[in-house]
Amino acid sequence: MLETAELAADVRRVADRLRSLSQARLAAALPPHPSRAAAARAVAQVLADAAQGIEERTAAGEPTWRVVPELSDFAVGDQLAVTGHDLLAAADGLPVDAPVWTRAGRRPVGEVVGDAAGRLAELRRAL
Fold first, then answer.
1. 22, exposed or middle or buried, with CB in 10 Å at 0-12, 13-18, 19+?
2. How far is CA 94 from CA 18, 29, 53, 97, 119, in A?
3. Out of 14, 33, 65, 103, which could bridge 39 as a Cys pair, Cβ 3.0 to 4.6 Å?
4. What's the pTM value of the predicted model, to 2 decimals?
5. How many CB atoms sit inside 10 A of residue 64's CB?
């Protein structure tokens, strides 16, 4: 089974940090992204893709991927929290080797969740 406690804690920490940033800090560049908010949106999309790939893992073909909408910079913490919680709910109880969809084809859920957690950790360190 997947171990997701650390991912859950990181989702909470990063979302709280984003919610506490001023507009100027959210708008500040975070290369290669034009802003911290844009970097967080990119990670929210990674989390959303992972959740969708897990949710639609039994589909015969690759899902039609949904795009996380670009809302106000002040909403990015909430978007990250929602997509992170969606991923945690989707992955709950799955064996680490369960095949799930990604934009690059099927991969084991443990790798997909691990990659998403890594991207979130990179964002946390950069903030």
1. exposed
2. 30, 37, 13, 8, 21
3. 33
4. 0.95
5. 8
Compute the distance between CA of residue 63 and CA of residue 54 in angstroms, rounded to an integer.
10
Q: CB neighbours (10 Å) of residue 97?
A: 9
Structure tokens at 12: 């909470």
Q: How many CA atoms lie within 13 A of 107 on its CB side?
A: 15
pLDDT at res. 36: 98
Question: How confident is the model over 14-42, as pLDDT tens digits?
Answer: 999 999 999 999 999 999 999 999 999 99
DSSP symbol at 73: G
Pairing of strands 105-108, 99-102: antiparallel
CB 116 within 8 Å of CB 50: yes
**For residue 57, what are its two tokens?**
């893992």
In sequence order, which ranges of 21-108 are alpha helices (DSSP H)?
23-27, 36-55, 76-91
